[in-house]
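Sample entry follows:

_____
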Amino acid sequence: MSEAVLILGATSAIARATAAAFAAKGHTLYLAARDMDELRRSAADLHLRYGVEVRYGLFDAEQTETHATFLQTVIEEMQGLHGVVLAFGYLGDQQVARDFSIGAKVIASNFTGAASILSHCANYFEPLKRGFIIGISSVAGDRGRQSNYVYGAAKGALSLYLQGLRNRLFASKVRVITVKPGFVDTAMTYGLPGLFLVASPQAIGERIVAALDKSADVVYLPWFWRYIMLIIKHIPEPIFKRLKL
């Protein structure tokens, strides 16, 4: 088989576009998510369009006790892995900040589940001294804003986790890339107020794959979000706390 890439959360719009970009480069794919019917359709479509081997299987980020067995099954089925893309997440709704039963799900999906599966991925790649891990975080994790601070906190924790993982795996020559998209036209953001400079999933997916050929460890997508967030992070707290963001 060609170099295999595992896509976690493979039914999201960004994950689909990323999978297509990898398939266009000839990579074998393993698609993982909770919706088996959607995975089956995506796998068939990618195989038909790009002629690559595409397999799929059930993965639930919140069922952390299943992660070790899941990854071992994928490794055996694909005869090894070249890389992993973590593309799952859960935004929640306007009640997240007031109802922690919803907030707990946001944290479990965006951080706890991510840290769990990535710990197993890191343990696999480290002794091989090769491979890559791409984690899709968010610009929301750069500063806490009243509109989405629970989601932002979980994504911020993921960004820090990826930073530490990158530091750990550098000596083993395992690449760890943190991707921070801004607003993307997906089902998760559909209908949300205040969106601007919205990017297409296709453009984001292509740039995620292209990041492997560049040297950046942290990639803002589109690129201008690096500067938008730089400004937002440097607003003094006495001013920032008065803003409706």
About this structure: The mean pLDDT is 93.
